[in-house]
């Protein structure tokens, strides 16, 4: 019974990866070697963990990885110089800037500097504008797009459904709401200042949480047989990874649910490589 409720990320990631491998083989047969650059400041543990996961996914797909690690005290000028070097390097097809940025580096400067065609995780305002206008030549943030990939893979209807997104960050909440509206969903975006958030959530056919608050959502927030997508990555008092959802509290009530771990996170890196291939094709006029 439990297995039928779980929306496992691995199945989705493996399906995307299979298609990416074919694309990479085709590009290499044309003499093109898809390559991603990861630009980071210092070596924070959360950055290192994502770097490992993304590098492993790239390795499975035959994609080359170049890591540029700047000193944690580097200046904004040094960071922009490194970014511009990647912008103009024809051997680099996609750039991933690790966020949040170091405090001495202004996000708006980086967003305006990164080459939009190589911006495979939607840092540039140009890609955000394309997302707003439903222009598929751009790139949505990988985590937000991973949620859509999961819903599509498991044939969960989006059109006309009442969907609540809990969280309004530029990395997940806001772009995810746009992606859903572009697919004709009726979307409500909730946040820490939303009144009656429990009532709104419990009236949703699909509930997506990206608030980053460990086990905040219990059965009171969930409609009977609703689909629950948990984007949160948190750690409980014992140091165990958990989502925004109190899994044990909701599992008997939900229709479908993504676990944490083994849910959205594993799909994010597969979306990253999918975007890298798209950028590579675009840069080579394919």
Describe this structure in words.
The protein has 286 residues and is of the alpha/beta class. The chain has two domains: 30-115, Rossmann fold, CATH 3.40.50; 142-265, Rossmann fold (3-Layer(aba) Sandwich). Helices cover 42% and strands 15% of the residues. The protein has helices at residues 2-5, 9-29, 45-61, 76-88, 107-113, 125-132, 142-153, 173-181, 197-201, 247-250, 264-283; strands spanning 35-41, 64-70, 94-97, 162-166, 186-190, 206-209, 227-230, 234-235, 241-242, 256-257. The mean pLDDT is 95. Keywords: Amino-acid biosynthesis, Histidine biosynthesis, Hydrolase, Methionine biosynthesis, Multifunctional enzyme, NADP, One-carbon metabolism, Oxidoreductase, Purine biosynthesis. Its EC number is 1.5.1.5, 3.5.4.9. Catalyzes the oxidation of 5,10-methylenetetrahydrofolate to 5,10-methenyltetrahydrofolate and then the hydrolysis of 5,10-methenyltetrahydrofolate to 10-formyltetrahydrofolate. Homodimer.
Features:
alpha/beta, 5-stranded parallel β-sheet, Rossmann fold, 286 residues, 3-stranded parallel β-sheet, 11 helices, single chain, 2 domains, globular
Lay out the secondary structure:
Blueprint: H1 2-5, H2 9-29, E1 35-41, H3 45-61, E2 64-70, H4 76-88, E3 94-97, H5 107-113, H6 125-132, H7 142-153, E4 162-166, H8 173-181, E5 186-190, H9 197-201, E6 206-209, E7 227-230, E8 234-235, E9 241-242, H10 247-250, E10 256-257, H11 264-283
């Amino acid at each position: 019974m439990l297995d039928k409720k779980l929306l496992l990320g691995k199945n989705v990631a493996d399906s995307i990866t299979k298609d990416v491998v074919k694309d990479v083989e085709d590009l290499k047969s044309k003499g093109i070697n898809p390559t991603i650059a990861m630009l980071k400041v210092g070596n924070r543990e959360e950055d290192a963990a994502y770097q490992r996961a993304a590098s492993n996914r790239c390795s499975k797909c035959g994609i080359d990885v170049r890591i540029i690690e700047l000193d944690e005290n580097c200046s904004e000028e040094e960071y922009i110089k490194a970014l511009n070097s990647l912008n103009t390097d024809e051997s680099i097809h996609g750039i991933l800037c690790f966020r949040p940025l170091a405090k001495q580096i202004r996000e708006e400067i980086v967003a305006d500097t990164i080459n939009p065609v190589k911006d495979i995780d939607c840092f540039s305002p140009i890609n955000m504008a394309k997302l707003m206008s439903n222009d598929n030549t751009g790139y949505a943030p990988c985590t937000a797009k991973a949620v859509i990939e999961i819903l599509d893979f498991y044939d969960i209807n989006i059109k006309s459904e009442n969907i609540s997104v809990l969280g309004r960050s530029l990395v997940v909440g806001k772009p995810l709401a746009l992606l859903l509206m572009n697919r004709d969903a009726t979307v409500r975006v909730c946040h820490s200042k939303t009144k009656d958030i429990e009532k709104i959530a419990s009236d949703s056919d699909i509930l997506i949480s990206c608030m980053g608050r460990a086990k905040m959502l219990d059965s009171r927030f969930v409609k009977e047989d609703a689909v629950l997508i948990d984007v949160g990555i948190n750690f409980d008092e014992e140091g165990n990874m958990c989502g925004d959802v109190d899994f044990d509290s909701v599992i008997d009530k939900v229709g479908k649910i993504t676990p944490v771990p083994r849910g959205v996170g594993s799909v994010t890196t597969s979306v990253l490589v999918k975007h890298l291939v798209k950028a590579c094709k675009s840069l080579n006029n394919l």
